[in-house]
Design brief:
37% helix; alpha/beta; 362 residues; 5-stranded mixed sheet; globular; single chain
Amino acid sequence: MNRHDRRTFLRTAGAGALGLAGLGSLAACGGDDASSSTGAEGSSGSGFGEISVQLSWIKNIEFAGEYMADSKGYYTEAGFSKVNLLAGGAAGTSAEALVVSGKAQVGLSSPTLTAPAIVNEGAELKIIGTTFQKNPFCLVSLQEKVPVASAADLAGKRIGVQTGGNEVIFDGFCTANDIDKSTFTIVPVQYDPSVVASGDVDAFMAYLTNEPILLAGPGATPVVLSFADNGLPFVAETFTVLQSTIDEQRDMLKAFLVAEIKGWKDAIADPRASAVLAATDARYGKDQDLDVEEQTKEAEAQNTLIVSADTEANGLFTMTDELIADNISALEVVGVTITAEELFDLSLLAEVYAENPELKTA
């Protein structure tokens, strides 16, 4: 998979029914890319057996914390005999569908996918934590060409937007910022940001952890307009589980969260080591032809989405009441009405940190 090819994670938001019964059109399925890992060599777990985690995308740096937790044996220390990290990215079904079907106990997803599954499909799902405090959606442009640094700068510009779910997210961005779409031109594009460098478009819908890094170079200074900071404060890479799993296997989920916290603390502390795992370890992304230097830069960029003043005070994966409310409001903007109680259950994380206060420290 060329690293210019982009995900459908989050970008399929609002694109229609999730097809939970029929394994519909949203991305992030195990498929042929699914693989298993057994944790640190020589370690052994007991108590909870195997756990399968459906990743939201191909095995790249996005899942550095999972790689750290696996390679350092944190899952086995937590009581799991084996963790199956199921690669996403293939056309097929959503993480929500995999969780509902029982093929994965945990799915990495987003409110823009989980909420419609609950509202439109009746899926009994909950989000129990979030890796990213902010989603990575942005518009990227170049300072040396036609910089688009604010919502007001869109007027008169050519804006590259990928068809499908990205259009829904972009429409939400415009609604949230009272932007008149008739004042600029939307140009249908794919996921290759070179159209910005070539001047085919002035700005391009992107992930701030990826395309701006790819565009940066001699004579090229990316300008990023973040959606999360401009009206669409969705979290991302959320942990989605069945309500029945919360009810019947609460201790298992808490043990999983402990391992995840440990893994992500290590990944945040050492972006390069995370990149080496992602790019060179056969259990993870070695077959994706990833570049260690570029993956390191992406790890550093995504750390800014994971770590905030709130997570430093409350612990990784937590959400403040204000952030939860902001997400519920943002979902309204993209046409999904749901309550916080219907979508989120952060009580497991609260118990984890109460029982393991040392995990709060960075």
